[in-house]
Amino acid sequence: MPMVDVYNLKHExxxxxxxxxxxxxxxxxxxxxxxxxxxxxxxxRSGNAKVKERGEIRGSRRKLWKQKGTGRARxxxxxxxxxxxGGIAHGPRTRDYAIKVNKKTRREALRCALSRRQQExxxxxxxxxxxxxxxxxxxxxxxxxxDASKALIVDGPNETLALSTNNLATSNYLSVDQLNVYxxxxxxxxxxxxxxxxxxxxxxxK
Length: 206
Prior knowledge:
Layout: E1 3-7, E2 13-18, H1 21-24, H2 30-43, H3 103-119, E3 123-126, H4 136-145, E4 151-155, H5 159-164, E5 172-175, H6 181-186, E6 189-193, H7 194-204
Parallel strand pairs: 1-3, 3-6, 4-5, 4-6
Antiparallel strand pairs: 1-2
Helix pairs in contact: 2-3
């Protein structure tokens, strides 16, 4: 069971905490990262591109001129793709890009991502992250104290912190229920409050 220091916002040690081996010291299975992150990225694609094909264009289906005897090329109706205002041939259709990943796989991938950060020494546990006011400068000062220029901050519901991190270019805040594999791997450092650790272990330790 890994034991790590707990810090305040000034990077001063205020105690220690025992982390769950199941959640924060699991064997890292990298192929799960690819599977889950690929599914996350695919789910963000809207798939809303849509054009009208010749069967969906409004208008007459009358043949424009007879098949033979005019000296001109044979044609069908005005909905054909080569006419201006006609239907589009082989255009994009609405579709769903979602890739199904089992819940058990997603949970295991998140355990692996958290374990990797802990094993790399880039998981920092904070006593809390309570700010007196909504101020980006306050969050920036904390990140500077921990030398974390690209950090993911994880806490319980914390509106002040959420609003204070909105303008950060390379760091982000997530509540425990929003925690996901992609964001954990995207950020170099993981700052997690004590209450968030307890919530994560309750969610993933089962």
